């Protein structure tokens, strides 16, 4: 994600659905329920314990007039322990839960859908959840994420988005296959992740189905519906699909289309830098007329607000396809591994195209921010130590810029050959997995053969401005 002068939509208090219970509990007393969270201290209710989702089959209908979303999702999941019940993350009111075709008891309180069904370790379940409501009425963790007007809707946000439109195990630790089928008025276009695999028209409505070839984590799934100009093709060996809102001013619409059509070429440039194949089977982008204040790295097809339609942002979001999408964070404290790397690629692209070198950029940033500036008063590798206002903290500008500065400084210390080998190893060894700050630090030391403890302490862990020394990449 890249945010430009973004004011988060924060509300006081969580709007919740009424508590719903269909019948008395039926779980086995000797088995505990799965936990309400996967174990990330920044967001204790994110994800769920005791389950591993294999796939989501999403079938949603969206009504533009009153912005109501209704639908059902089939969640295929496997139990990782003997459980008396398990949770899914969903904000919309729940109408029913069926497992292997039979109705089961459930409770729904705000963010947590609690399914009262005993399951044995290793058992595979077919869970169908039906739901309906107005996503714009709900908030979670200080986020009111539904982006829509009477003409257009785009389900895009981070670190949370899925619970506003489908039930999920909402954390980067659990990626799954996802199919997205959206029903909307037939005169609207629907764009989502991956490849379009079908469109069926029934009267005034049309159902459009998209399916990525590769698994992804829930917050990276998206759909956009509205009046879009759509183009597709193949460039540098990469199929691409781009869509630009027809509600943008004509000049911005033309510029956005021209810019996004270069996504495949930019993807190929990043491949060359990393020496690593693009991890997905299609690329592209979507430009919305709505203005959330940021762009987002939705897997295979980043989404761009009107204010983010520029080359630097496109490079940033495409770099995320490796750093954040293919290699996801293990926990949200490691967010600099996404944003710092994407920021570095903005800087390196500028260097390679005749602008400031990365070292000049680093020096300008370092010299331009005084030691007493709040920019230095945080730990990059743990940006939300009190677990309050975490969304504001993990996407603060110092996470992006100090993360990018740390990478350029590392490049200065270990040299280009070792630095780019570190990046190559990171994205190839961990493709389709997760990573932590400590693992990245260990990899940099392994590749370079240098003791970098003091370097990483200064740049990623200390809450003060690094000393202006060669050992810190500033000599």
- What's the CATH architecture of the domain at 333-472? Orthogonal Bundle
Number of strands: 23
**What is the CATH domain class of the domain at 333-472?**
Mainly Alpha
Q: What percent of the residues sit in helical stretches (DSSP H or I)? A: 25-40%
Blueprint of the fold:
Blueprint (H helix, E strand, L loop, with lengths): L1 E2 L47 E13 L4 E12 L6 E4 L4 E6 L2 E2 L1 E5 L2 E5 L7 E10 L13 E2 L4 E2 L22 E9 L3 E4 L2 E8 L2 E7 L11 E4 L1 E8 L2 E8 L4 H11 L2 H12 L8 E5 L6 E2 L7 E2 L6 H9 L8 E2 L6 H17 L5 H11 L21 H5 L2 H33 L4 E2 L1 H12 L4 H9 L14
Parallel strand pairs: 2-12, 18-19, 19-21, 22-23
Antiparallel strand pairs: 1-20, 2-3, 3-9, 4-8, 5-6, 5-9, 7-8, 10-11, 11-16, 12-15, 13-16, 14-15, 17-18
Pfam family, one: Peptidase_M1
EC number: 3.4.11.2
Organism: Nocardioides caricicola
